[in-house]
Amino acid sequence: MNTVKNKALKQLLWVGMGSIAMFFAGLTSAYIVRKAEGNWVDFILPEWFVYSTIVIVISSLILIFATQRIKKNKEIFTLIVIVFLLGGLFTYLQINGWKELTSMGVYLTGEGSNVAGSFLYVLTLSHLVHLAGGLIALLVTAINVKKKKYNSESYLGLEITTIYWHFLSALWLYLFFFLKYL
Amino acid sequence: MSEHHHKETFITKYIFSQDHKMIAKQFLITGMFMAIVGMLMSAIFRVQLANPGESSFLYNLLPGDWINEAGALNPDKYLALVTMHGTILVFWVLTAGLSGTFANFLIPLQIGARDMASGFINMLSYWFFFIATVILISSIYVQGGPASGGWTIYPPLSALPQAIPGSGTGMTLWLISITLFVVGSLLGGLNYIVTILNLRTIGMSMKRLPLTVWALLITAILGVLSFPVLLSCGLLLIFDRSFGTSFYLSDIIINGEMLHNVGGSPILFEHLFWFLGHPEVYIILLPALGIVSEVIAVNSRKPIFGYKAMVGALLLIAFLSFIVWGHHMFMTGMNPFLGSVFTFTTLLIAIPSAVKVFNYLATLWRANIRFTPAMLFAIGTVSAFITGGLTGLILGDSALDINVHDTYFVVGHFHIVMGLSAIYGMFAGVYHWFPKMYGRMMNKNLGYLHFWATFICAYGVFFPMHFLGLAGLPRRYYTNSAFPMFDGLSDINSIITFFALTGAIVQGIFIFNFIYSIFKGPKASTNPWKSTTLEWTTPVERIHGNWPGDLPVVTRWAYDYSKPGASEDFIPQNVPLKEGEEEH
Q1: Which end of chain B is more exposed for a tag (fewer CB within 10 A), N or C?
Q2: Quick one: pLDDT at residue B1?
Q3: How high is the pLDDT of residue B308?
Q4: How far apart are CA B106 and CA B101, in angstroms?
Q5: What is d(CA B358, CA B364) in angstroms, rounded to the nearest whole number?
Q6: φ, ψ dihedrals at B481, nearest 5°
Q7: Are the CB atoms for A150 and A158 separated by under 8 Å?
Q8: Cα separation of A24 and A16, whole Å?
């Protein structure tokens, strides 16, 4: 029964991620359609977003490493805390990206703003909102790790957090390359 | 006794319940309440259309500032009523009321599960819906009134708070309400999918699932894929409304003042909206078709004709529903070639739809039919699906659509194909599963009276609308008396209003029957319709966990009716196959 429940919970997450993917598919397809209609001001994506991309990829790799370690009943608390901190660093870098955008004259809204910039803010902000969910999941996972709730036989919570975090990384990679090259 | 059946308090049993059956009833009752509200709104605006500018006692139901000094309905509030009627019926009644009720009630019972995968998420799904309901209703009483730009909330009316009275607080509340509604729907949908895929009892393979469950599964998949796009559409709208971005707005002058918005496109909104909007039609319709499949098979005492084709048709309809949204936008300056592509994909839907209709008729053919009220409504669904589907052929063709675009022809079409089909399906479901929901039977004769009166009134309302549309009468107008060219149509308008009001009144028969039967209806037996599906193997006393003891084991499909050699004309799914007996 537990196996079924675990499978169901993971599926719940996968279907939920499908839904989130459709939300971003809606936004990015709107971006493409709107861009094709003209009145679109191009600008260079600040380098902060490159750094944040590297950070989130590294955080995902660490989570893979953590999963490998839990399978051998090894300590992973430090790794989860590092991933959490990297999630915080990612947020900080995104905010720096916005700061640079405003110094370039690219605003979310108001006189002189252009929809190209508005889209960038909305997409990155929406991603950050979903990332906040990931950070909460990491926090809960860290607490559970501290309480020694996971071992090589049972680590569903860690697995679910890892899957969602990888999804957030993949989603950001998609958004980053989308914003940079499209 | 099941381990799941434990003592519960009033609060955990009736309010914050995690039992799928109670949550289903919560959806049903809330859906019925909203149906009454939506129906009253339509009765009121039909009175205005029949007697433009005159007063009516019905207007006493409205907030005071909706009526002018002469006692007539204010034009802007007419638009508010039309908008709220559409919103309530499409989302609150035919999406949440229908799917929420029957997905919650039937999925665990028909697949042989104790409950949903997550009772907590299921409870959250209802409470998001409930809060959304409270917010939507409260928007009626804010200054300026509720959203008034049509249920499709096209910008700029929805994007500029100063556009019309309903564009202010009313529109903001509409957006908050629909966001909560979508979150609730998504939570419900996730749960339905995962429950069906994981919690089927032993032997309940996908090939043995009742068609109701197939329909609800596909509906849930449609929902989780399309509702998020509505959220993204709404998010951009909120940014335009509240933060001054220009996703949908451009070159707008209000009271001589040029707004700063440049380059936005309301057409972009339409693309995003209808990407949800068309699958939404099937989110509404498919559960009704699932219910109808079950009710027709049970009351025909025959296996459903072409089970695999029925599942295939559902899948094909669902797939096609994602690539036809452009047919709502033929008049937006769309490239004619693109229009023809959307015409092609739209008309393709006729194929799986025809498969379904053919299979229903083949199931009925030479059957030993029991005309229960549920069966009448089920056949009514098929009938409305055909009638409304035929006019869909005209509207789905870009060249023909141009002639009747935004006229009453469209209103007649979608009310029959989507509104009537789905609401008949909902009635069929309530009459059929009422004994399982409340342990009592509804009154049959009142059911017959309800069906025939509803059937006649519904056609009395929507059939003449096609002629109004062909005559060019536009939809959404406050009055038609301002245009001499439409003077000849005023009698038809009055007839429609007569049937609309009569149709609204006769729903009282259903409501009385429903409430009376909950308390005073004759006690139901375990399996009153002699049905094969698992829900009828549960005890009449509804317990949390559904089955006392072990879960049933399934050995056959859901449609063993009138099987040659069997002693009875139905064999429940949990009856083991006899030695040498083939499954079907």
Answers
A1: N
A2: 38
A3: 97
A4: 8
A5: 10
A6: -80, -10
A7: yes
A8: 13
Tell me the pLDDT tens digit for each residue of B157-181.
999 999 999 999 999 999 999 999 9
Terminal Cα-to-Cα distance of chain B (whole angstroms): 34
DSSP annotation string for B540-563: SS--TTSSSSSPP---S-S--BS-
Residues, chain A: 182
With beta carbons less than 8 A apart as the criterion, state whether B358 and B342 touch: no
Domains recognised in chain B with CATH numbers: 10-537 (1.20.210.10)
Over residues B552-572, mean pLDDT: 94
Q: What residue type is assigned to position B117 of the chain?
A: A
Among B416, B410, B496, residue whose Cα is nearest residue B460: B496
Please report, for residues A32, A37, A103, A104, A127, the alpha-carbon distance to residue A181 in angstroms, rounded to integers and kept in the order given: 12, 18, 22, 19, 18
> What's the start-to-end Cα distance of chain A, in Å?
47
- Under DSSP, is residue B110 helix (H, G, I), strand (E, B) or coil? helix
CA of B173 to nearest chain A CA: how many angstroms apart?
21
Residue type for position B297: A
Buried b (16+ CB within 10 A) or exposed e, B337-370: eebebbbebbbbbbebbebbbebbeebbeebeee
Q: Is a pLDDT exceeding 90 seen at residue B481?
A: no
Residue of A nearest to B223 (CA): A19
DSSP string, A6-32: HHHHHHHHHHHHHHHHHHHHHHHHHHH
For residue B321, the 8-state DSSP code is G
Distance of alpha carbon B523 from alpha carbon B124, whole angstroms = 32
Distances (CA, A) of A101 to A88, A95, B177: 20, 10, 33
* Ranges in chain A, pLDDT < 70: 1-2
Whether chain A has a CB inside 8 Å of the CB on B242: the answer is: no
What is the mean pLDDT of the segment spanning B216-233?
A: 96
- Enter the DSSP assignment of B146: S
| pLDDT tens-digit series, residues B119-154 | 999 999 999 999 999 999 999 999 999 999 999 999
Question: CB-based contact (8 Å) between A8 and chain B?
Answer: yes
Q: CA B73, B86, B465: angle at the middle one, nearest 5?
A: 80
Tell me how far apart the alpha carbons of residues B73 and B494 are, in angstroms, rounded to a whole number: 17
Cα–Cα distance measured from residue B294 to residue B304, given in angstroms and rounded to the nearest whole number:
8
A105 to chain B, minimum CA–CA distance in Å? 15
Using pLDDT thresholds of 50, 70 and 90, give the confidence band for residue B5: low
Pairwise CB contact (< 8 Å): A37 & B268: yes
Are A70 and A155 within 8 A, CB to CB?
yes
B274 touches chain A (CB under 8 A): no
Is residue A109 within 8 angstroms of chain B, CB to CB? yes
**Residue that the structure tokens 């809606």 belong to:** A26
Tell me how far apart the alpha carbons of residues B463 and B413 are, in angstroms, rounded to a whole number.
9
The Cα of B128 is separated from the nearest Cα of chain A by a number of Å equal to 17
CA B112 to CA B339: how far, in whole Å?
A: 46
* Residue B2: per-residue pLDDT: 44
Q: Which of left, alpha, beta for B203 (phi over 0: left; psi -120 to 50: alpha)? A: left
Query: Scanning the structure block, which residue is given the tokens 């910008």?
Result: B155
Residue B474: cis peptide before it, omega within 30 degrees of 0:
no
The DSSP string of B241-298 is III---SS--S-EETTEEPS--S--HHHHHHHHHHHHHHHHHHHHHHHHHHHHHHHHH
Q: Which residues contact B361 (CB under 8 A, 6 or more apart)?
A: B382
Amino acid letter for position A65: F
